[in-house]
Design goal:
heterodimer; A: mainly alpha; B: mainly alpha; 1 helix; 45% helix; 0% strand
Chain lengths: 260, 20
């Protein structure tokens, strides 16, 4: 996701964590305000292209080698590269968070990675191999050329919300409040309980593979409904947007609730 | 729910999903 998605996910999580959890992570992250999760939600992206942070560049995705729209599915052994992927990273950084022998700075970084990667695994194109998660597919968006990955990361959500694009934190906060209401008493009320079924703290791979497979299924149904070649050069801000927007809302809501 | 589980484990508290 772009900043808007990551920050919204963090604010949704802030709305559902227990008091004890809030105090625990405020301590670990050194931030006593309501922005303690939102303020670090994009940190992993900010270090990704720096020299020292380069080790983490492959941690944001898993390249599912499936065949959309005919066949979707993620296989951990087949798809997670030797130097890591979003699923192995969630395992690694969750276990670092649970290891009280590590230095506080290590656990602080682990928290920032977990907060970010729970978000990324819910973006369908972070769980897809085709054209590097859609980065190599040129499409049109409101008459301008973009790559498909960027459209799913940012453009669709930004169009949904409208308003001033520069006010990312305000927009994310507002979006998070709306989605929190939908989870607590709106359209997600009944299904949200099942979003956290079968969470296993001692088996982060199994847990995040459920999330990855769910996310990847949207690659077949909504990202490439007619296959990857049919979308090249298409204008996506119309009918395609109308179908994709509810998926993005749902995935952001789920990511926030599951992160909490 | 993931952060709740982590905080519970580290605080020696209960392992259920609490308020969620």
């Amino acid at each position: 996701w772009g900043s808007l998605g990551h920050i919204a996910i963090a604010y949704i999580a802030s709305n559902f964590v227990k008091e004890n959890t809030e105090a625990y992570f405020q301590g670990l992250l050194g931030n006593d305000t309501e922005h303690y999760l939102a303020g670090v939600a994009t940190w992993a992206d900010s270090i990704r292209y720096t020299k020292w942070g380069r080790f983490s560049k492959n941690f944001h995705f898993i390249d599912a080698k499936d065949d959309p729209p005919t066949y979707c599915g993620v296989d951990f052994v087949r798809d997670c590269k030797e130097d890591g992927c979003v699923v192995s990273s969630l395992q690694n950084y969750t276990s670092q968070l649970l290891d009280s022998k590590l230095w506080p700075w290590q656990r602080n970084q682990a928290a920032k990675f977990v907060i970010h990667f729970v978000g990324d695994i819910h973006q369908p194109l972070h769980v897809e191999n085709v054209a590097q998660g859609g980065n190599g597919i040129h499409v049109n968006w409101q008459g301008h050329e973009f790559n498909l990955h960027h459209v799913w990361d940012s453009s669709i959500a930004e169009k949904m919300l409208g308003g001033n694009r520069r006010k990312t934190y305000d927009n994310a906060f507002r979006w998070a409040s709306d989605l929190t209401d939908e989870i607590k008493s709106g359209k997600y009320l009944t299904e949200s309980a099942s979003w956290i079924d079968g969470l296993l703290l001692d088996d982060p791979i199994a847990t995040s593979m459920v999330w990855a497979n769910e996310s990847n299924a949207y690659v077949c149904s909504h990202v490439f409904p007619e296959g990857p070649t049919a979308i090249i050069g298409q204008e996506l801000a119309g009918e395609y947007f109308e179908k994709a927007a509810p998926v993005i809302e749902l995935q952001v809501a789920k990511a926030g609730y599951r992160l909490a | 729910a993931w952060l709740n589980l982590i905080a519970d484990r580290m605080s020696g508290g209960e392992k259920d999903l609490g308020e969620l």
